[in-house]
Amino acid sequence: MKGEGSAKECGKSGTLDSCNFMRQFRDLESRELKQLTAAQFMEVWDHYDDDGNGFIEGTELDSFLREFVSSVNQTDCGPEVVSDVMLLELRECFLEAYDDNQDGKIEIRELAQLLPMEENFLLLFRFDNPLDSSVEFMKLWHQYDADGSGSIEADELKNFLRDLLREAKKSQEVTEDQLIQYTDTMLQVFDSNKDGKLQLSEMAKLLPVKENFLTRQVFKGSTKLTKEDIERVFALYDRDGNGTIENEELRGFLKDLLELVKKDYDTKDLIDFEDTIMKGCDFNRDGKISKKELTMILLALSKQAGED
Description:
By secondary structure, the protein is mainly α. Helix content is 53%, strand content 1%.
């Protein structure tokens, strides 16, 4: 909805009944929210993410909460419907319930938990099924980057979404038109640089990992790194149990390392990072990471974090 400035300003001023943006998505009789299509969900997101920074926060969040609550009424709107005191309580309750990472703002995944959406589209957010580790992520990346271009183009993303929905047993059959709409919508959501494809860090937001283990406090210099910590990390990445971290295991480990220092990254960044890390830590030059080499990396990481 960006670009429709007058409509957007009207929605925030709340001076007319038609100016509550959320009211159009409620049933006229029951006043319940209707099930949103992928396109409608993006309309809601774009309307309230006014600055386009990928979060609904501050005055944007206040505007959404005021209109979300007052949209239940058929005519009432404006700030007087939701007092400042009520808004404060509402914001606290809302963030407690939906702000999963507790950063005080709402991401698109978190908003998707609140609004009723068509089931298949909601499944694409994978709330209950994040990947175990970045090793699995890198395997999927190479599987769907079929042309090896270093990015996931629209057709490759469509294939990924189709397979993702097929894996969801409760999913209904998705038509080709729906799939095209889902692909376009997910590109709108996750293609931060708007180049029509997903780079590595953008795909990582679409397909989250349960936890980047390397962000734990033990690797931030606040506590002593133990042998058990190193064993846990090694087991996390040595998925085949052959005693070395290699190939996609290595890419997964390096992806997690890279995320500690760079928010937006692509495959070239990962290759350059791999070259730097392996030159300094692959002592026997076999292109793999042994447990001893991993220990040196983790100790250096913990020491650097402690100095910072």
